[in-house]
Amino acid sequence: MKILICEDDTMTLKALEHKLKKEGYDIITSQDGKSACDIISTQKDIDLLLTDLHMPKLSGLELINFVRGELKSNMPIIMLTRVGLEETVLHAFELGADDYVTKPFNPDELALRIKRLLIKNKQ
Amino acid sequence: MGMRNYNLGYLREISGGDEDFVLDMIQTFITNTPAEISTLKNLAMKQSWVTLGEHAHKFAPGLQFIGLVSMRPVINKIEDFSFKKENLEQIVTLIEELDSECQLVSEQLRNDFNL
Fold first, then answer.
1. In this complex, do B54 and A8 lie within 8 Å of one another by their Cβ atoms?
2. What is the 3-class SS of B45-77, one letter each residue?
3. DSSP label at A123?
4. Do the chains contact at B18 and A18, CB–CB below 8 Å?
5. N or C: lower Cβ tally within 10 Å for chain B?
6. Domains located in chain A, CATH noted
7. Could you tell me the pTM of the whole model?
8. Looking at chain B, which residue has its C-alpha nearest residue A107?
């Protein structure tokens, strides 16, 4: 299973990549929303998108809008956000995000949420 | 080893026992932090408060990985004051406090891990 992680903070990105590789996933990374759009447009085998909401070039919200609105893709999307951004999270759900995880993330909880969404999406 | 201002518990939990990953994260913190703090200082000097708030927001996770718990309220205040444009006179002092603590922790990490 292939996961695209879109996160502009280097340490968070490294931590996510490390944890999810240990869980057995193939990982692609991007540090801005624009390049994530390019990756999703060209690589059709991505199974799940894990994206920060605040990113340069194109925000997480715009990225979700692109995936759902333009690409018409139903790939599971999990948002990464910090506590205190509830309004943004609600907006992301309206745009079609499936779940969210707050930073600093609990590694085992994140792995379970990903697994659950991937199973659900297969059914 | 004396008292340490960092705590690698969370990082080790994520690492799953991979010490190379822990060292890579520590090195990233040591390498990237001076530039991050310099950016915060420059933005405060330019009074670019919203951008400063956004950078503070981005900087916060790095502190969590290194377990710099004492700096959480400091970075939260920098972010909060910047976005709300309140208590602006305190921001430079808060960034200095953050800078001193990060320098101290970087030094401790360098010594403890022979970096």
1. no
2. HCCCHHHHHHHHHHHHHHHHHHCCHHHHHHHHH
3. -
4. yes
5. N
6. 2-122 (3.40.50.2300)
7. 0.92
8. B14
- Judged by a CB distance cut-off of 8 A, whether residue B14 touches chain A is yes
Question: Is residue A1 a contact partner of residue A89, using CB atoms and an 8 Å limit?
Answer: no
* B47-84 pLDDT per residue, tens: 999 999 989 988 888 899 999 989 999 999 999 999 99
CA distance A46 to chain B (A): 24
Closest chain A residue to B20 measured between Cα atoms?
A18
**Contact indicator for B42, B34 with CB cutoff of 8 Å:** no
Rounded to an integer, what distance in angstroms lies between the CA atom of residue B66 and that of residue A36?
A: 28
pLDDT tens digit sequence for A41-58 = 999 899 999 999 888 788
Beta-carbon separation of A14 and B64 below 8 A: no
Strands A2-6 and A48-52: parallel
Out of A11, A22, A107, closest to residue B61 by CB: A11
Q: Bridge-partner residues for A80, per DSSP?
A: A52, A101
Cis status, amide bond into A104, omega within 30 of 0: yes
Q: Which phi and psi angles does B68 have, rounded to 5°?
A: -85, 65
